[in-house]
Amino acid sequence: MTFKVAIIGRPNVGKSTLFNRLVGRKLALVDDTPGVTRDRRVHAAKLYDLHFDVIDTAGFEDAGASTLPGRMRAQTEIAIREADLIFFTIDAKSGLLPDDRTFAEIVRKSGKPVVLVANKAEAKGAQGGMLEAWELGLGEPIPVSAEHGQGMPDLRDAVIEALGEARAFGEDEDTDDEDAAASEVLIGEDIADPDAEPSYDDTKPMRIAVVGRPNAGKSTLINALIGEERLLTGPEAGITRDSISVDWDWRGRRIKLFDTAGMRRKARIHEKLEVMSVQDGLRAIRFAEIVIIVFDATIPFEKQDLQIADLIIREGRAPVIAFNKWDLIDNPQELLAELREKTERLLPQARGIQAVPVSAETGRGLDKLMDAVLKTHKVWNSRVSTGKLNRWLEAILTHHPPPAVAGRRLKVKYVTQAKTRPPGFVVQCSRPDAMPQSYVRYLSNSLREAFDMPGVPIRIALRTSDNPFAGRAKKR
C-alpha cells in the first residue's frame, strides 16, 4: 500500500497546480480565482522513483462550520487525518499571511510529518517569502514552481527525509506491479475492441457519471450511495466545480463514480470558471459508461434536463434517470405515472429508459436505482447474433417493406451488429441515400422491441454493396 500526501494551504497558493504536476495530468481545475477547489480529490501520483496517492484539498479558510467555507474546511481536515504526509503550501511570491500562521499551527498539532512547500519560487521577489516561511516552524521551505516543474528533485528528497527511506520506498515494487496491472486494465478497456467479448463481463469496474442541473442533489446522491460524506453538499447551487471520482464497491461490483458540476443553459454561463467546470463535466460523460441524470422531482423536465439527456444519448452513453427529492412529493403514485409518461414522450430516442424515484436525503430507492443501472449497462453491452438479426429482418420486411422512392422500390438485403457500447448495426440496402429516416426509426424501434434493448441509444448505419461493373463502359 502506498503512502498518502495531502496538499494543504490557504486559497490561491497553487495547490491544484502542484496536484496536476504530481499526477502528470491536468485533472484539477486551475484558475486565478481563489477557492476554485472545493471537494477533496485523490489520485495516484509519481515523483521520480516515489509512488504515492496525493490529495488535492480546498483552500483552508477560517470560517463557521455551517458556512460553505466552513464545510470546505471540514473536508480538508478529513484529508489531513487520512494523510501520511502533508505538503503545507505557501505562496513565496506574496509571502506569509495571517492565515498561513493559523493553519500551520493546526497542521503542527496533527502530528503528521510535514514538508513546507514554497510555491511560485520562480517569481521576482520570492526570496523574501522564502525567508519568512522559516517563521512557521515547519522546517526548511522547499522552493518549487508547480507551474513550470522546477524544484521537483528537492521536493523528492524532502519527502524521503520526512518519511524515512523504508516508508518512502517500502512498497515501491508492489506499486509498480499495481501500476502495470492498472495499465493493462486501461488498455483492455480503452484500446482493445470490447466486441471481442461474447458475454457480459462483470469483473471490470463500471464507470458512472452523475449529471444534472445545479442543486438537483448530485453530490448528496453519491454520498448516500457510498454511505459517507465524501463530497461537499449544501443548500447553495453550484457547489461542485471539479469532476470528482470516487471508488466504490456495490454488491461485489467495482464502480467508479464521477460527480460533476451542475449544467446550466449555455446562455446563462458567463464566468470562465463555470465554463471550465461544465467542460470538465462533459469529459466525465465521455469517459463514463452509464450516466445517471438527476432530475429535481419538484421541478422535473425543464428544458435543460432534456438537453442534458439528449447530449448523453448523442454521445452514445447509457442514460438512467433518477427523480430525486421524492421525499418532498405529496402525491407520489400519481406523479410517478405522469413522469414516466413524459419520459417516454419527451425522450423517444432512448425509448424504455429506466427512470427511478429516489431520495438522496433519506436513502429511499437507491437499491432500485443501482438495479436499473446494472440492467442498462448489460443492455448497452449486449450483442445479437447475425442469424437472429436476419430472421428478424425477414419478418420485418414481410410485414412492413421499405417504401418506393422515385418509382423504385428500396431493397434491404442484410443486417449485422458491428459494435456494442452502444449497440450499432449495419444494414445493407440498395440506395442508402434514398432511405427515409422514418423507416430507419422504424427499424431501430423494432430492433429495440424484438431483442429487449430498452433505454440505450441504437446506431444504424446504411451501406450498399459495391457494384463490380460500376464505371465500365457499356458494350456496343
UniProtKB/TrEMBL annotation:
It comes from the Bacteria. GTP 2 binds at residues 212-219, 259-263, 324-327. It holds the Pfam family KH_dom-like. The keyword Repeat applies. Belongs to the TRAFAC class TrmE-Era-EngA-EngB-Septin-like GTPase superfamily. EngA (Der) GTPase family. The lineage of its organism: Bacteria, Pseudomonadati, Pseudomonadota, Alphaproteobacteria, Hyphomicrobiales. GTP 1 binds at residues 9-16, 56-60, 119-122. GTPase that plays an essential role in the late steps of ribosome biogenesis. Keywords: GTP-binding, Nucleotide-binding, Repeat, Ribosome biogenesis. Associates with the 50S ribosomal subunit. HAMAP family: GTPase_Der. NCBIfam families: GTPase_EngA (TIGR03594), small_GTP (TIGR00231). Residues 3-167, 206-381 form the EngA-type G domain. One of its GO terms (biological process) is ribosome biogenesis. One of its GO terms (molecular function) is GTP binding. The keyword Repeat applies. This is GTPase Der. InterPro entries: G_ENGA, GTP-bd, GTPase_Der, KH_dom-like, KH_dom-like_a/b, P-loop_NTPase, Small_GTP-bd.
